[in-house]
Prior knowledge:
Layout: H1 3-21, E1 24-36, E2 43-45, H2 52-57, E3 67-68, E4 71-72, H3 73-82, E5 86-89, E6 113-114, H4 121-125, E7 133-134, H5 140-150, E8 153-158, H6 165-176, H7 183-190, E9 201-204, H8 217-228, E10 239-246, H9 250-260, E11 273-281, H10 293-303, H11 306-320, E12 327-336, H12 355-370, E13 375-381, E14 391-394, E15 397-400, H13 402-410, E16 417-424, E17 428-432, E18 435-439, E19 442-449, E20 452-459, E21 466-473, E22 477-485, E23 505-509, E24 515-520, E25 524-532
Parallel strand pairs: 1-21, 2-5, 2-13, 5-8, 8-9, 9-10, 10-11, 11-12, 12-13
Antiparallel strand pairs: 1-16, 3-4, 6-7, 14-15, 16-19, 17-18, 19-20, 20-25, 21-24, 22-23, 22-25
The structure holds alpha-L-arabinofuranose.
Amino acid sequence: MRRRDFLALSAGLLAARSARAAQAHIEVFADEPIGTISPDLHGHFTEHIGGVVYDGIWVGENSKIPNMGGIRSSLVEALRALKPPVVRWPGGCFADSYNWRDGVGPRGQRPRRANFWINDPFMVKAPDGPQKYEPNWFGTSEFVRFCRLVGAQPYLAANLRSLPPKDFYEWIDYCNSPAGLTSLADLRASQGDKDPFGVRFWGVGNESWGCGGDFAPDEYAVEFRRYTAWLPQFGVDPALIASGPNGGDIDWTRRFLDKLTEKGKHMLRKVYGLALHYYCGTSGKGQAVDFTVDDWYSLLAKATRMEPLITEHWAAMGEIDAQHRVKLVVDEWGAWHNPGTEVHPAYLFGQMPTMRDALISALTLDTFHRHADKVAMGNVAQLINNLHCLFLAREDQFVATPNYHVFRMYAEHRGSQAVRAQFAAPAHPARDDGRNWSVTGLAGSASIQGKTLVLTAVNTDASRPLDTEIVLRGATAKSGKLSVLAHPDIHAHNTFSDPGVVQAREEIIEARGSAFTHRFPPASVNKLVLELGS
Ligand code: AHR
């Protein structure tokens, strides 16, 4: 027997032996690429809602809270470490009631308007303030400055429900026209922004099936055509994002694309992405930090619905767009819990993320990576003091939530080639909304860049570790490094007074050859960075 064959057989026998001991299996196919993991899959969303903008991002130039031109310094510093690729603004539902002109010019002279969310029963009871009466202190220039401070691309959502198309293209003019050449470029310069912003990503309305106008999909397609029939370019090729389906509404996807292309398939070239929104929500009595083990499994099960949503909408898009010119943009996703954990009575949807949310973040980002060929962008909703947030802030207090730690861990996948990986482990039954669900015991994604393989994996078991056999097909590991986010209490969360309860720890692991085993702790998010041999 040749030495190479002997080694292969030994590895196979060893793998078979450890396979018997293991409860779970991961198989990574290094030679089966899916697509490049766009950094934009790890994008963010900031709406004028509750405490996101006031006081999450904007504290004002004269505030005693440390700030950079009015923007909260602690947030900028934390985001700089994360390198966020893209941030969506100003909504959400707020976008379709927002006039961008209200947010430009001298800050002291800007109008005050009723915020879109003022009628929400939570806001009716909230104290008056900038969360209810929008002072427009944070407008386009301030947002773009925020993006520049943290190194992100701005993604602006245009108002399709309550402003005509002219306002849309004048907003583009204000943002992108060359210095000194249009009156709107002069207006921009008068605020200290002589150079154009170069905004590329533009949403054409938001949730046009609901708060964005209550359109039927074919009606919205006609509006989309009208709003995008002419747009100034100023040297920036706009990436237009159409309002897409609510969760599993395949009818929206089909009828929108059908109507859009009734005058020809060339219309598909206008659309960079179709925006899918999907939130997994707490049902029953619990809220963000108060839930049972059954609630844990049922919410994680709902989070894993992201995968069939992507594949089903993608298949429907392919019926009309056979070459798949249009990609999916999941520009709102996350867990939506019942109220009760807000850090301020005007912070609508200001929920406090726990380990449960961290697992939802990881399961969702892994799903995007596995579908890197279909999803062009993902924007978690929302950045701070809101649904599924990465940060909480109140006055001078600031804390990073478990979600932040997942985004930091997963950043290592960005720009790498996603490769196919299979995850197998016993599933956990889950029951919710009168339905039987099940949540996968182990899920994740894998990517390769040069000689580095990044494997992320989530053990959804609330109380038991998972001994897992990891097999590399077409690759061999030389060494390995582990980052793990885990806590014995599934309710664990970071607070202003105890900010370090949930944080990732790192260690060197024994990972050699093409098969090895690893024990994933209960309720954990894991990242294995493997250096590959030749
Ligand atoms: O993220 C909160 C809201 O959820 C957004 O404004 C809206 O687009 C969605 O329904």
